[in-house]
Design goal:
One of its GO terms (cellular component) is extracellular space. The chain has ten helices and seven strands. It has helices at residues 2-53, 108-119, 123-126, 130-137, 155-178, 184-195, 200-212, 222-232, 239-246, 256-262; strands at residues 69-73, 79-83, 97-99, 104-105, 141-144, 220-221, 253-254. The strands form three sheets. A three-stranded antiparallel sheet has the order 4-3-5. The chain has a two-stranded antiparallel ribbon with strand order 1-2. β3 and β4 (104-105) form a beta hairpin. Bound molecules: calcium ion (2 copies). One calcium ion binds next to β6.
């Protein structure tokens, strides 16, 4: 009997030890399994932040290239402008443009591409006669469409042109107001032009000058005149000599005073300012 009790006690104590070891091992395993998962999650969490910070920003996004050029990246990822390699083939004759050299180009892209080649002395320009190369370096669009014979602006037509131009500018301003395309500042000028006859031409003329001066340096360059010049030259044969004449001191820029005088508006009538400088 004693022997039996002794055997039973021994068995129980062995079982207890085994159970306790098993429990310990389970704890240990659970701990070892959970720990790597936690660490993995931590690694994943940590790796999320740098990815978010490294959002790819195209270095070309803020690089401005002239017409006929495209932005590319150097091996070091630095943006630079280079001549556009290929212009899409245009079949629509309305896409053609007439240059200031009175030559027709298939598209504005083709004209500016050639200007770029000549500016950077590309082989495609070097093949041309030297005086042509020099002319092409400063080539620009004179008007849209194929080059055609333009009637000469007579003295009588030119004398009447400032009035026609003022009238046209007022109509354009009105149209834009009707289409909700004017800012509240210029809309106020337009309303004033509608109701106050003395402001009618002045406001329209000032608004257009402000609108054309996209660089806000208070001078309209030849390039900035492009939006009114190019679409109208073929239709209004007086507009080119008229606009050329507005730059009375020939410095290639039209100041507000030159513009207003050109439109034959009395200088003392100028009171308004452009929206961007009105608070000065
Ligand atoms: Ca300007
Ligand atoms: Ca000038």
């Amino acid at each position: 009997m004693k022997c039996y009790l002794l055997l039973l006690g021994l068995t129980i104590s062995i079982l207890c030890v085994n159970f306790s070891e098993a429990k310990h091992k389970r704890k240990k395993y659970r701990g070892e399994i959970i720990k790597p998962i936690k660490e993995e999650l931590k690694v994943e969490e940590e790796s999320l932040d740098p990815v978010e910070e490294e959002i790819f920003i195209d270095p070309c996004a803020n690089k401005h290239c002239s017409p006929g050029q495209v932005c590319k990246l150097t091996e070091n990822g630095q943006p630079f402008c280079t001549c556009i390699e290929e212009c899409s083939f245009e079949t629509d004759p309305r896409r053609k443009v007439c240059s200031n050299l009175n030559t027709t180009w298939n598209s504005d892209c083709a004209l500016y591409q050639m200007r770029c080649w000549c500016k950077y002395r590309d082989q495609k320009c070097q093949e041309l006669p030297e005086d042509t190369q020099e002319q092409y370096r400063h080539m620009h669009i004179n008007y849209y469409g194929e080059c055609k014979f333009l009637e000469e602006c007579t003295e009588g037509q030119m004398a009447d042109f400032p009035r026609r131009m003022r009238d046209w500018l007022f109509n354009v301003m009105q149209d834009m107001a009707d289409r909700d395309e004017l800012s509240p500042y210029y809309l106020k000028m337009e309303r004033e032009a509608q109701t106050n006859l003395t402001k009618r031409w002045t406001n329209a003329v000032i608004w257009k000058w402000c609108d054309l001066d996209s660089s806000h340096n208070r001078a309209v360059s030849r390039h900035e005149l492009f939006p009114i010049r190019a679409p109208l030259v073929a239709l209004e044969h007086c507009i080119a000599p008229f606009l050329d004449g507005c730059d009375s001191n020939n410095d290639h820029e039209i100041t507000l005073n030159e513009w207003v005088k050109c439109m034959e508006i009395e200088e003392e009538e100028i009171e308004a300012h452009c929206e961007d400088i009105r608070d000065e």
